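Render this sequence as a predicted structure.
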Amino acid sequence: MKLSLGFALTSAALALGLAHTASAQDEPAYMVTYIEVSHSGADEAAGLLATYAKASQSDEGNQVFQALQRINRPNHFAILETWANAQARDAHVNSARAARLREDLGPLLYSPIDARPHGDLHTAHFEGAEAGAVYVVTHVDVTPNYTEVTVGLLETLAAASRRDNGNVRFDVLVQLNRVNHMTVVEIWDDLEAQQAHTGARHALTFRGELFPMSGALYDERLYRSL
């Protein structure tokens, strides 16, 4: 699915309560959550998150619920969620299961849980990944005056990257409260496919064109599924 920057800006207004709620439009809703725990708590957190993700996949309106553990940083985790609409997403956020997870993770955390609601900027249907797949979650931050240009660059990158060997998913989401912050979600068959992509001409061209507009480092993180 491809939505314009205008829709992204509208979505941000919706999220801030300046218009009708996003759920009224029945558009897909996304959540990207980052969790960082102490090194000694990594194994316990992994168990909690794996159980939580499996249970949450059966929640009404859920389409994707994936808990991830960062490669080479096993005390860093991420959760990727896709919901039928914002109402379903928010119902989960306010559920007893989510509250229980936050309580259980509390003693393990060395940084607060960072949950970021997102909207759809440029996504496509995917069937799911095999065991051993590599997940990549990248936070893209540009100065506000370059938002529209960056959206165009990311749309071009996504369309080209979906044709790369070994690609399973390549989606671009927009953070609802800061439309100049975007998240790229990738899934690759294996690390070799992901590394080949980073050397592809379209990936190198994108990074070169993005660099002068960046407001922060290009935060690319690699994960495995729990």
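Summary. Residues 1-24 have pLDDT under 50 and may be disordered. The beta strands are 29-36, 62-70, 76-83, 114-122, 134-141, 167-175, 181-188, 219-225.
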